[in-house]
């Protein structure tokens, strides 16, 4: 296995890395030390060439007949994604979805640590949600500046999304995981990734209705 | 406002409809009866022409100087997406993410009703999660056939995803909202929409690391 400096890696490749990570970790749990691109591809329904290309993009090539060293590959993926160290994040908006995410234990697989929650509802302020303290929105800027937290998970109502974004970016937030339906306006250098559950459900619903109409 | 038979509507347009729906419902709550494409566009950070094109695709055009009739537009979007009637779904895999989604009240905005949960963990079977009963996996096929539920929300571990998919599709499931990282193999006519939280977080993490490196 050789590992050179990674060049530019495509977004689709980056999106597939967590799936590879899951397979590799499971293989390790089963005491496998080496794993082939065919094995990974089979588990995920990809073509083996896809897996090899993706990992080559990270500067990693397997050994013929032996495959990839699982431990090395896990380290390489974690390092590439910056998941080798715990990353603190603030969760903003402790409503239904926010509370669900605050309690989602799967984030620990990716070393994402929700440090605290923020909400404008005074009945929630001072309480804890899944062990995370809830602060009022007026503490946001101060706590971002003081703790140096870079990542915000935005689970607040759409109407407040842009205003709060402006405030947290000014305070030093560099990355926003946006669960609202708003297309946020941010300065260059601030990263936004949106997860739009409603959009996904809309597509599922409409495509299903069309497919079922075709049955008749 | 005229409303003709919708022709083919693009996936990006369908994905934007829930955001329009949110804006329209909020406007109604504030006793606005009419709403302009510029207003909708402003709230979402889109161009007004985009909003007009999207809605024209559904066969809806606003009235010059007056805008869209909010109530009619809401009905048209709900009808188009099949969200005008409650849709029952089964949630399969009552782990962390599954439990969070079972308790997510936001789905009621889209008339999605999680009827029950299924899990292979015998300690969970027979209990309730957020008021939804948990059944054992051996009841899946029977209950899908008996109730005629079409939609499954898949929140189980990757390794079980394809096997359970084969089973539920055979029993009659027509649409799968896939929260696993597995690319599922399904027969023609069965719809799969995947929400890959880990993929989104991977992209956020890597892009942020790159942006912060550029600062130095």
UniProtKB/TrEMBL annotation, chains A, B:
Domain CoA-binding as annotated: residue spans: 83-183
DNA-binding region: 19-58
GO BP field: negative regulation of DNA-templated transcription; response to redox state
Presence of keyword Iron-sulfur: no
Localization per Swiss-Prot or TrEMBL: Cytoplasm
Keywords from the named record: Cytoplasm, DNA-binding, NAD, Repressor, Transcription, Transcription regulation
PANTHER family per the UniProt record, alphabetical: REDOX-SENSING TRANSCRIPTIONAL REPRESSOR REX, REDOX-SENSING TRANSCRIPTIONAL REPRESSOR REX 1
Family according to the record: Belongs to the transcriptional regulatory Rex family.
Annotated function: Modulates transcription in response to changes in cellular NADH/NAD(+) redox state.
The name this protein goes by in its record: Redox-sensing transcriptional repressor Rex
Organism (species): Anaerohalosphaera lusitana
Taxonomic classification: Bacteria, Pseudomonadati, Planctomycetota, Phycisphaerae, Sedimentisphaerales
